Amino acid sequence: MQAAAMDPADEPPAMLWGMDPIFSAFARLFVRDILQMTESIQVPGIYFYNLHPIYKVDVLGTVVYKRERDDFFCYGVDDGTGVINCLCWKSNLVKEEEDPSKSGTKHSDAAEGGFDPVAELRKLRQKQRKRCHLEIGELIRVRGPVKTSRQQREISASTYYKVDDPVMAVQIAWMMEVPQLYRLFYDKRFQLDAAGDSAETSLSKATNVIKDFLKQRLVAKFRPYDVQDLLQPLISSRLQTQEAVAGPSGCQQLNQLLKEVLQVLQDEGTVYRKVKSQDEVYHVTIQDKDLLIAVKDIIREDSKREKYAEKGCHILHILSAVRQRYSLNVSKAALELVLQTLECDSDIVSTSDSHYIAF
Q1: If we measure between CA atoms, which residue out of 273, 287, 285, 265 comes closest to residue 209?
Q2: Nearest residue to 134 via CA among 91, 172, 88, 100
Q3: pLDDT, tens only, 323-346
Q4: DSSP structural state of residue 350
Q5: Most buried residue, 10, 70, 151, 342, by CB count within 10 Å?
Q6: Over the chain (359 residues), what is each successive 10-residue block's mean pLDDT?
Q7: Which of 229, 331, 211, 217 is nearest to 276 (CA)?
Q8: Predicted local confidence at residue 250, as pLDDT
């Protein structure tokens, strides 16, 4: 594939990449996203996913093809979203095994029945060699930097080994962990403010205050005046630091801050208004039992239809059905939180490409 390049104007400055913790970690990305990442203009070999600078990844998948050379193996690794070449260099242990002149075994003079360090070391080396030799159909884990060679995106493995997973415990744990990493980190764009200040803004502090209150009290629904007083300390501290110049009063600032917080919570899907009226009532998405039941029933009913029996119901189909049967004001972000909650409770399961089926 031809590596795509970013517009230099959209690319974060290279001197700030280290401020993104993902830059120094092995990013557990799906192969599909590794193949589609855009390459940096400033530093070739650095790629971007959602403006996160990435140069090394961690992949778990099945070997679907294999090529062997004198110094390396080339494995094709399929994680269910795509296939990527993994260049795995042979260790000295593997080369010694292949070299007849070095494959001879030496007998130890250890007493019969005693501990033989040479034999134990030989067993350890044999196990290491077995974990480096993989056949088609076996599970492999690869870590290393991403490269583009001959217009092909590949991983140059710094570490690779065969994964023994007879009951699929490793694969299931991986399938549960990686989507969570996407939701919490990878899908949130890497952003820095103009001043380079990473301190929380008043809006983010206020948003966290309201979120903590809703979580601790398990609030199902509320009105703005129910949470307004929670933000008063933030406004008071702001007024104390302001110079004595003309400006909005404390009450005006409080109302404006609350309005902005509620908008942020709606954009994130944390809350929504089931019915838009003069009586502003906000429902907490994951505490709205009726909404959870409605979404679960929609998926259960429509999954039985021939059209959705194989792949399940797409998120946009579910969203359309929820708006028709429950509330026009349910956002996609709110539905995603509901689906995440139902999946954590094992009521539904995601298949691929945002499709869901019910148990």
Answers
A1: 265
A2: 88
A3: 999 999 999 999 999 999 999 888
A4: E
A5: 342
A6: 53 84 94 94 90 94 91 92 92 55 49 68 69 86 92 91 92 93 87 46 87 93 94 75 53 89 94 90 95 95 88 93 95 94 90 84
A7: 331
A8: 75
Neighbours of 29 (CB within 10 A): 26
Q: How far apart are CA 219 and CA 286, in angstroms?
A: 10
Gap between the Cα atoms of 350 and 315, Å rounded? 10
What are the beta bridge partners of residue 271? Answer: 284
The string of DSSP codes covering 299-331 is: HHHHHTSTTTTTT-EEHHHHHHHHHHHT-TT--
**What is this structure's pTM?**
0.51
pLDDT value of residue 149 = 82
User: Which residues 6+ apart lie within 8 Å of 274 measured at CB?
Assistant: 281, 283, 288, 327, 329
Report the alpha-carbon distance of residue 138 to residue 173 in Å, rounded: 17
**CA–CA separation, 40 vs 298, rounded Å?**
43
SS3 label, residue 358: strand
pLDDT at 279: 85
Asked if 271 and 261 touch (Cβ cutoff 8 Å), the reply is no
CA distance 297 to 299: 5
Of 100, 79, 229, 209, the residue nearest 142 (C-alpha): 79
Give the closest residue to 29 by CA, choosing from 132, 150, 155: 155
pLDDT digits (tens, 9 = 90+) for 160-199: 989 999 999 999 999 999 999 998 899 987 765 444 443 3
Instruction: List all residues 6 or more positions away from 82 whose beta carbon is below 8 Å from its beta carbon.
Output: 30, 31, 32, 34, 35
- C-alpha 228: how far from its chain's center? 34
> For residue 164, what is the enclosing H or E element?
none
Measured distance CA(293)–CA(107) in Å, rounded: 69
From the CB of residue 211, how many other CB atoms can be counted at a distance below 10 Å? 17
Whole-number pLDDT of residue 66: 93
Q: The dihedral of CA 157, 159, 165, 169: what is its sign?
A: negative
